[in-house]
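Example 3.2
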Amino acid sequence: MSQEADTPPGTAARHDPVYDEIHDRPEFIELRKRYRGFVLPATVVFLVWFLLYVVMSNWASGFMAHRLVGNINVALVFGLLQFVTTFGIAFLYARFSVAKLDPLAEQLNAEYEKGKRA
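Structure, written as tokens:
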């Protein structure tokens, strides 16, 4: 039976039915679990770190204005560390993705392609 025959008249097909089969597989569920297991904590940590910078800048201005070396103060170091943190998280995510996500994603993609051809 073709996909068009399964779709009521006047409506577009939502997606390839092979996706529904892959979506229910334990490997896909594991892929989503691994992804969320990295992304959610990393996002929370970064947002807390960023909000700490904002809060400290607003309500601990004396501490943030403390000079460390020459004209370099704590606020400048905190601000620069925001960039370091951003690149660090991106680097860690890339390594995590290659090691933990990509193998599962490639396996699921191969099954998806195989299912499309069938």
